[in-house]
Amino acid sequence: MTLGRYDYERRYRRRVWAGFGKFGILAALLLGVGLFAYQMGIEQLKGRDVTLREEIATLSRQKAEFELLASQMQTAARTAEARSAELEARLQREVPTGDLARLSQLVAERIKGGLDANRLAFVISQAQTPRNCQPADSKRFTLTTPLLKGGTRGATFGNGAVTVAGEGQPSHNAQGNQESWFDPSQPVTIKITGIGGKTATATGVLPLHQSLVVDNNEYRFTFAAGQRSFVDVTADRCAYP
Length: 241
Fold this sequence. Notes:
4-stranded antiparallel sheet; rod-shaped; coiled coil; membrane; 3 domains; transmembrane; transmembrane helix
């Protein structure tokens, strides 16, 4: 009886310890699986974190590129607007409208019809608003040179209201010697003097043009080379203004 009870208790303890062992093994197995799953989760989170960081960096880079592109497009748009405004202003300045357009068309038709452009330009330049003018007065006078200084050298207009006189460079003969008369191919200086001390000067190679206002009259002079030593001058006198 004693032996039988002892065997029973020993087998019971053995089963109990075996149960504890199995429980321990199961717990250890579950713990290992849990730790492995946890570690895998950590690694996956790390991988996702790296991936997200790379995506964020890529998106930031793309955002910066898009902002730069947008800025460039805005600059290009402003430049295009400024260029468009400039071209529109230039178009308004250079393309004739109204009376100017009609005159431009007439000029183009005349030139196309064979009229010389220089002749047409001359005609246009001579066109003026009608003014209260006296008949033109033409005279001639001699220009002084280093070899021709004596005597009266000049002409008067408007009953002495205006005097014109001038000087030039001496001519040369075939031997290269200086002559007393002026050389019309060289620049001359003509001085116009009015009552009250008003003056005007025309300088250059003949023909020359100059005007002077004296006593509510405007004198317009045209100087051209005449016969040897002489200058032909034509004066128009008109009311001013």
